[in-house]
Amino acid sequence: MTVLYSRAQVRNAITKGLTMAAAEAQVPSSDDRFTWARAAAMTLLEKPGAPWAEVKNWHYKASPATPPSDDDTPLFTRDQVSQAVTNGVDLAAEHNGRSCPDDLDNFMVNASLTLLDDPDADFYQVVAECYGERPSVVRSWL
């Protein structure tokens, strides 16, 4: 049986994942690396392969007063979410002047996907599920 996730679940997991990454790295979650990664991931979730111009449109659009009518409808597989988040982080890194994603970007991906499956997960759970290292080692990479 394939589990499907709603746009709202995905958006919340990404937001919590980047917030966790920012807190652990002691970087503001409003930093461009996070806001652009979120915009890219959400854009690519809806339209894989979307050009950067569409990511910019998503990033700069005003938040709608009410979410789309299908915001809570399960539509996306975990694989679709994983691809969107991974490709979104890669795309944001490229457009933020970094030649490739770094450890903080990778943690953001892992945290977002862990939080998708377990919305109450914390840093220690992300580390336990995604890394073969102690939390202090992972934290030192960020």
What can you see in these coordinates?
With 142 residues, the protein is mainly α. The chain is globular and about 40 Å long. The mean pLDDT is 93.
Describe how the helices and strands are arranged:
Elements: E1 4-6, H1 7-25, H2 32-46, H3 52-60, E2 74-77, H4 78-95, H5 103-117, H6 123-130, H7 135-141
Antiparallel strand pairs: 1-2
Low-confidence stretches: none
Quaternary state of the chains? single chain
**Terminal Cα separation, in Å?**
36 Å
As a percent range, the share of strand residues is under 5%
| Strand/helix succession | EHHHEHHHH
Rg, Å, rounded: 15 Å
Count of extended strands: 2
Q: Note the main sheet.
A: 2 strands, antiparallel
Secondary structural class: mainly alpha
Q: What is the overall pLDDT average?
A: 93
- Helicity range: 55-70%
- Basic shape: globular
Lateral strand order in the biggest sheet: 1-2
Number of helices: 7
Summarize the structure.
64% of the residues lie in helices and 5% in strands. With 142 residues, the protein is mostly helical. The protein is globular.
